[in-house]
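Quarterly update from the structural biology core.
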Amino acid sequence: MTRRKRLSPEESRSHALEAARALLIETGPQSVTLKAVAARIGRTHANLLHHFGSASGLQKALAEHLAKTVCETIIEAVHASRAGLGSAREVVDLAFDAFDREGAGALTSWMLLTGNEDALNPIISTIHDLVDEIAPEEADHKGDDLHVHKDTLNLVLLALGDALIGAALAKSLGLPRDAARVRAADNLEASLAAHQDS
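Predicted structure, tokenized:
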């Protein structure tokens, strides 16, 4: 009989969140249960219950984990773009991939449909923190010139909608699959250009 390696609480939680993320991507948000995650990492249901409290707590922690991971990547891309090393399209692709390929769109809709709206708070607050870091001059939320806030709202809503119905809608309209990404990048580039000119 092999003994399992004893993990610190942080390591155990991290392993569980990575397993939950893999389940989310592979089989959808309905499969992100304490039992499924425990089976994936070779731990007990009780162990995960200790770390997350409930399936709802696991989903909330997963939402926060996804949001932080994605926002860190987006911040790097924004800084690169501002330094002339990247493009608006790269920022758009990161946001769209987070909601589509990384499962944030499916998780968001699942939490809303199951009445777990408070689990979205980590996503919303992480995006808020991202905007405050990118545009500290807008952090007080006063005045009319909240262009980064408006660009972020537009980008997140487009990315979420695209993750949920983008493929089917683009096909039905006879548009390429990446039409929403192209549109989002065009909007972001136009907004950045307008702000630089002002």
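The chain has a mean pLDDT of 84.
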